[in-house]
């Protein structure tokens, strides 16, 4: 059994080690989706300003994560009324009413954290948690939407994806990001390979024991 585990260890490492971080080099940012969950790229929505460069839906929980970029932002000060007005426009365009907002320090720079609320007859209350900042005259808004209220901010599992957002270093190599569907195909292939090896090893052991008995 120890020899079998030793043989299979490299394949387990292949399964868990492949890239899971999605890079948006043109916009100098990245975000990570857990490989073990059913995330699927969703349709990007039209925004009153800027561009939604990423939108993904968890097919099990229906949680949504998105990144919006607004170039040529009129100010570099996150605390100005002009910045809040523009961010509020984005929240409203997504169907939410702004409930609270506060300034926080995140990723080594000031962010505005905005909580939005929307009532849905089918699923009850929906919450939007958005973190926005301005970097070199470009506004970045990373948000997540799901069932519940502002208490979801304390849920590490709910916040795990937007918490993985980061800015790329200028010297990071320009590599083509692995498509989301390809990651699932690769994980499925590796898992099937592992199962095949386990069954082959089990068959070999049983065959040798049978031959020795006779």
Characterization of this structure:
This protein has 214 residues and is α+β, with helices and mostly antiparallel strands. The chain is 33% helix and 34% strand. It contains four helices and ten strands. It has helices spanning 2-17, 81-93, 156-163, 180-213, and strands at 21-24, 29-32, 39-41, 51-58, 64-70, 97-106, 109-120, 124-135, 138-147, 166-167. It is elongated, with a radius of gyration of 23 Å.
Shape: elongated
- Helix and strand content put the structural class at alpha+beta
- Helix count? 4
Distance between the termini: 23 Å
Encode the helix/strand succession as letters.
Answer: HEEEEEHEEEEHEH
- The total count of strands amounts to 10
> pLDDT under 50 segments (min length 5)?
1-19, 174-182
Task: Work out the oligomeric state of the chains in this entry.
Answer: single chain
How much helical structure, as a percent, in the residues? 25-40%
Summarize the structure.
The chain has four helices and ten strands. It is α+β, with helices and mostly antiparallel strands and 214 residues long.
What topology does this entry show?
Layout: H1 2-17, E1 21-24, E2 29-32, E3 39-41, E4 51-58, E5 64-70, H2 81-93, E6 97-106, E7 109-120, E8 124-135, E9 138-147, H3 156-163, E10 166-167, H4 180-213
Antiparallel strand pairs: 1-2, 2-10, 3-4, 4-5, 5-9, 6-7, 7-8, 8-9
């Amino acid at each position: 059994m120890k020899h079998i585990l030793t043989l299979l260890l490299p394949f387990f490492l292949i399964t868990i080690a492949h890239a899971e971080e999605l890079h948006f080099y043109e916009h100098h940012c990245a975000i990570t989706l857990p490989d073990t969950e059913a995330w699927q790229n969703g349709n990007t929505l039209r925004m009153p300003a800027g561009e939604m460069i990423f939108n993904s839906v968890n097919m099990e929980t229906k949680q949504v994560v998105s990144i919006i970029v607004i170039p040529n932002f009129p100010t570099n000060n996150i605390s100005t009324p002009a910045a809040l007005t523009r961010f509020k426009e984005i929240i409203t365009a997504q169907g939410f009413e702004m409930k609270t907002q506060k300034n926080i320090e995140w990723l080594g720079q000031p962010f505005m954290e905005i909580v939005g609320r929307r009532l849905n007859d089918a699923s009850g209350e929906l919450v939007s948690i958005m973190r926005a900042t301005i970097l070199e005259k470009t506004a970045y808004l990373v948000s997540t939407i799901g069932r519940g209220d502002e208490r979801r901010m304390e849920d590490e599992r709910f916040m795990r994806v937007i918490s993985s957002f980061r800015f790329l270093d200028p010297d990071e190599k320009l590599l083509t990001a692995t498509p989301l569907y390809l990651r699932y195909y690769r994980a499925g292939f590796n898992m099937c390979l592992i199962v095949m090896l386990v069954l082959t090893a089990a068959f070999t052991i049983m065959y040798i024991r049978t031959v020795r008995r006779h």
